[in-house]
Amino acid sequence: MDATVTVHTDTREFAELARPFYAADPVRHTAALTALRSVESAGKAGALATVTAADRVVGAFVWDPPFPATVSGVPATAARQTAEAVASAGATLRSVRGPRLEVESFAEAWCSVTDVTAEESSSQWLYELGDVLTSPQRVDGQFRPATVDDAERIAEWRQAFAQEAGMRLRRPEASAAVAELIAEGTTCGLWWVAGEPVAMATAREPECGMSRISYVYTPPELRGRGYASAVTAAVSQLVRAGGVRHIVLFADRANPISNRIYQRMGFEKKEEHPEFVFTTTAAP
């Protein structure tokens, strides 16, 4: 590819260039759009780069530490150029994620440029809700959208979810931060049985016509009763009723049960998104 890679330090400038590119395919770039919103809000990033050809943006790279760098927008043909530019800017990446072709191409290039090794640490399937949402039947309880009054319980469960999933967190979950998310437009839903919440699911604030379901959680002692499926379906229905066109989620490729459940609901498998972790090569 006859392209130019530009490293950016101004997050607003980068966002103006990268957002239209990501918005052209918000499903594929769901993680990148989340990272973009975060670095734009914070005014800082681990590394940012755009790939241009014929005076238009054809690729983008965003790293929002402590999360993996996202390369869904880095063309495989520009992986080497992008790796060289990001490395020259002083970035020391810990991990990277994205669609398999793009992430493998970038990981290989990064290893060559920086003399590190890469290992695939996990892989997720990216799903998008199809035209028909099928809610689970005969599940005891009812759905209620969460309010700021539920923030303490939701924060506790988000922390538990992150620990179980091995997720990186910028800081421990706090009820005040969750209340702020709800007030800003994040959709949090709870499934209730006999006056008590038993499961939750979250839909991120829509971005470019896309919202991602995450933090689907049921306490261990309440699992196996369909609560998580029910709350996920209810949150998805609520988001769709609000006019969001693309509703997506990630599911661990190693968990066949959750993958079957999401497919039964009407979520359609789009592509695989592995994560690679980098390790410094030991000196001889």
**Counted beta strands:** 12
Task: Tell me what portion of residues adopts beta-strand conformation.
Answer: 25-35%
CATH classification class of the largest domain = Alpha Beta
Strand order of the largest sheet: 4-5-12-6-11-10-9-8-7
The structure class reads alpha+beta
| Total of domains | 2
Strand count, sense and barrel status of the largest sheet are:
9 strands, mixed
Classify the fold: give the CATH topology of the largest domain.
Aminopeptidase
Global geometry: elongated
* CATH architecture label of the largest domain: 3-Layer(aba) Sandwich
Quickly count the helices.
8
Distance between the termini: 37 Å
State mean pLDDT (0 to 100 scale): 94
Q: Give the % helix.
A: 25-40%
Please name the fourth-level CATH homologous superfamily of the largest domain: Gcn5-related N-acetyltransferase (GNAT)
What is the rounded Rg?
19 Å
**Low-confidence runs:** none
Helices and strands, in N-to-C order?
EHHEEEHEHEEHHEEEHEHE
Structural commentary:
This protein is α+β, with helices and mostly antiparallel strands. The protein folds into two domains: 4-123 and 274-280, Aminopeptidase; 133-265, Aminopeptidase, CATH 3.40.630. It is built from eight helices and twelve strands. The strands form two sheets. Strands 4-5-12-6-11-10-9-8-7 form a nine-stranded mixed sheet, sandwiched between helices. It has a three-stranded antiparallel sheet with strand order 1-2-3, sandwiched between helices. Helix 5 packs across helix 6. The model has no long low-confidence stretch (mean pLDDT 94).
